[in-house]
Amino acid sequence: MMSAYDELMAFQRETEALAQIAGRLGWDQETMMPRGAAEQRGEEMAAIEGVLHARRTDPRLADWLEEAEPEDDEAQAQLRLIRRSYDRATKIPAELAQALARVTSTAQGIWAEARAAENVADFLPTLAEVIDLKREEAAALAQGGDLYDALMDDYEPGATAEIAAAMFDRMRPRLVRLREAVLAAPAPAPLNHHFGENAQLRFARDLAARFGYDFTRGRLDLAVHPFSSGSANDVRITTRVVETDPFNCFYSTIHEVGHACYELGIDPDYLFTPLGAGVSMGVHESQSRIYENQLGRSPAFTGWMFRQMLDRFGDFGVTSPEDFARIVNRVQPGFIRTEADEVHYNLHVMMRFDLERALIRGDLQVGDLEAAWNDRFLADFGVAVDRPANGMLQDVHWSCGLFGYFPTYTMGNVYAGCLHQALRAAVPDLDAQLAQGELGAATGWLRENVQRHGGLYTPGAVIAKACGFEPTEAPLLDYLDAKFGALYGL
């Protein structure tokens, strides 16, 4: 007879497989699905969410969890994650889970159309519905506690808004000082050249492969908002193309490759188990950000990239690898978070954190969100938002119901700063390798020390084990000061 643990894991395997199918539907919706299918897809997503919710709240789970006897640390971790999922799922009524799946599925299409039309009013009724449902979900999960903490815990277990706010308060003064110093220095001119879509995508594919992306287990497509989707042997990435700004495509690709390589690098024995996915969005973001920034935007790697672009695009108006590095790392108070330089990026996240926390608390009404966004952006960045697609309509997250997600971006940057410090100690000739376009040692170290563990350890533990110290924002801030101080002669 099968043990309680074996029965539990067999049941969980099917649940995980069904969740992957739901994820594939989401990928299709963002890349291939015809626009007219949005309402039907919402019903499909609601149906599969109903099946998943029923499995995640199946009363047998409680019995198996009570009876299961873990034989090792891996089994103990599996039980910890299944129990966490069960405890959260049983607090949420099935009708609410299905309603959220249905509304957020259709909301993404409404958001995309409103963004294209530059019409906030077209999105607000749906956003209000999403927020009402998320508050209801948060209340069910919090059971009298802080609503935002309950939502945030879904993406970064153990983190709270208070912890995030305190860290942001410590970071903001140094980021603002660095920004002011950099913006007072002479700025490099942006690129002024046309870079064809097909040529960009060819180089993007080559970059993805160089950073370790396995195209036999994935694919690269176009999307309005780049993302990565899937796990194990089917991990897909997307990018976007702006023919006057190739860095948009190249660094979106590298960023999503970081996410994808995390999933691809997880121990294959964890397939279709709770350990077979990244442990948190913060740790996930640490991989995408270290691939994109500490590796991909390093002056050593951009020197190699400069030579590649000359070969592929011909003369594009930049005469030296040093000037190219400054252009790649150009600091400017732009509107778009995903295109923000490293100095400004976390300020974008902090703004969203404050706004969505106020929305969930009820301190900010949906009808006042655009004005609140525009006022805050002007105060934080010194630039007035010129159109909704550059303002509150730029991110897909709120249409997806991903409240509590934004702070994990900065947590991921903090983790990446810690990992970068440890990586440089472990690979002392890293710059020499990057200058040759060689990423194997760096990505191999990350795979061995972070990625292969999947969900085995808690978020803080996996970073601490990799780095040899508890995560702190200091390495990230020191890295930013050193890098941009050198680039801008501060």
Features:
490 residues, mainly alpha, Neurolysin, domain 3, three-stranded mixed β-sheet, 20 helices, 3 strands, globular
Sequence-ordered SSE layout with sheet pairings:
Elements: H1 4-31, H2 38-56, H3 59-67, H4 73-89, H5 94-117, H6 124-142, H7 147-152, H8 161-183, H9 197-210, E1 220-222, E2 228-231, E3 234-239, H10 246-265, H11 281-295, H12 299-313, H13 321-328, H14 342-361, H15 369-381, H16 407-426, H17 430-435, H18 440-449, H19 459-467, H20 474-487
Parallel strand pairs: 1-3
Antiparallel strand pairs: 2-3
Helix pairs in contact: 1-2, 1-3, 2-5, 5-6, 8-14, 8-20, 9-10, 10-11, 11-16, 12-13, 14-15, 14-16, 16-20
Low-pLDDT sequence parts:
none
**DSSP helical segment count:** 20
CATH architecture of the largest domain: Orthogonal Bundle
- Give a quick account of the main beta sheet: strands, pairing sense, barrel closure: 3 strands, mixed
Order of helices and strands: HHHHHHHHHEEEHHHHHHHHHHH
Q: What is the percentage of strand-forming residues?
A: under 5%
Pfam families: Peptidase_M32 (PF02074)
Function: Broad specificity carboxypetidase that releases amino acids sequentially from the C-terminus, including neutral, aromatic, polar and basic residues.
Active site: 256 (proton donor/acceptor)
Catalytic activity: Release of a C-terminal amino acid with broad specificity, except for -Pro
